[in-house]
Amino acid sequence: MHQKDRTAALRGKKILVTGGTGQVARPVAEALAEHNEVWCLGRFGTPGVERVLNARSITTRYWDMADSSGKALADVPDDFTHVLHSAVRRGEDGDFNAAIEVNSAAAGRLMTHCRDAEAFLYVSTGAVYARQTLDHRYTETDPVDGVADWLPAYPVAKLAAEGAVRAFAQVLGLPTTIARLNIAYGPGGYGGVPMLYFKRMLAGEPIAVPPKGQNWCSLLHSDDLVAQVPRLWRAAEVPARLVNWGGDEAVGITDCVRFMEKLTGVEAKLVPSEVTRETYQFDPTLRRALTGPCTVRWRDGIRRTLQDHFPDHVRVPAHNRGA
Fold it and tell me: Where is the NAD-dependent epimerase/dehydratase domain (predicted)?
């Protein structure tokens, strides 16, 4: 089923999406625009992307999360029924305090502006969890520590923003869901982390893997992500509901890379290292109870995503995809 049809149950709403050009929010915005009034906030740095959104009847407004003035949201309506807040300052510059301040304050300002919404969905990250064994299935009650060697400020800023979202949900009485996202991937955007690995494979660059075992994750294809957003809005409550947002299947990162190697014939140079891009496998029990099961199996999703982004490199016929 086409992704726009999978959000058809949500009709006639006025929806605000931040980070609307990203891997997560853009396919959601485009799908919801079929039957709803959708607005996207962002900086729209990618050339042409704003025009594409406008062509899909999506209203766009420039928004700088770091702008604390009263003008930042001055020309944005305040009568949205649903909000998806996916925009983030990741902290690539290593400035922890700036990342914490920008993400937390922006979330609070946005929630206050949209305080009358039916539901607010904040996209956080699974990278906040305290690292346990490689194959540990993380639940919503597992301890957090906000440590990620590959991007240190990012999970710290997300944890701080989660705190702000929890506080504003209660103070404003705004039904909220905090969804800690795993790895989203699919045909839109840059394709997600698996496609970043494939680009490294094409360039002949090494991919760091643990000396023993492999990192595990819960890949979430954009088809399932899009379908689950309305259900996560329906699950919103006060105090804010927390849920791990990932796919149903446990996926080994090394297994995923080797599968792409098999599909394309492009060699993967796996190099044992103590420092890797750590990933987290989720226990999907709560999320399945809220959204229902996923529909895209990871091998099929990876094959389809490779075909969308790198069609000249996929050599294995579709009927062999699960081999």
Answer: 15-231
Task: Give, as one character, the DSSP assignment of residue 285.
Answer: H
State the Cα torsion 18-117-176-221 to the nearest 10°: -40
CA dihedral for 284, 258, 314, 181, sign (positive or negative): positive
How far apart are alpha carbons 145 and 142 in whole angstroms? Answer: 10
From residue 199, alpha-carbon distances to 21, 103, 128, 278, 308 in Å are 21, 30, 26, 18, 14
Task: Mark 31-59 as b/e (b = at least 16 C-beta within 10 Å).
Answer: bbbbbbbbbbbbebeeeebbeebeeeebe
Instruction: Please give the Cα distance from 181 to 161 (Å, whole number).
Output: 14
Residue from 246, 266, 248, 264 nearest 302 by CA: 264
Spell out the residues 6+ positions from residue 273 whose beta carbon is closer than 8 angstroms to its own: 208, 209, 210, 211
Model pLDDT for residues 53-72, shown as the tens digit of each residue: 999 999 999 999 999 988 99
User: DSSP alpha helices (H): ranges in 143-192?
Assistant: 153-172
Q: Where are the alpha helices (DSSP H) in the chain?
A: 25-32, 49-55, 96-113, 153-172, 193-203, 222-234, 253-264, 285-291, 298-309
Q: Which pTM value belongs to this model?
A: 0.94
- Residue 4 has a pLDDT of 44
Average pLDDT taken over every residue of the chain: 94
- Sequence-ordered list of residues with C-beta below 8 angstroms from that of 167, at least 6 positions apart, any chain: 108
Cβ distance 218 to 212 under 8 Å? no
Segment 172-201 shows an average pLDDT of 97
Q: Domain boundaries in the chain?
A: 12-185+219-245, 193-217+249-320
Q: Is 48 left (phi over 0), alpha (psi -120 to 50) or beta?
A: left
**Superfamily covering domain 12-185+219-245:** NAD(P)-binding Rossmann-like Domain (3.40.50.720)
Q: What is the CATH number of domain 193-217+249-320?
A: 3.90.25.10
Lowest pLDDT segment from 7-21, 211-225, 262-276: 7-21
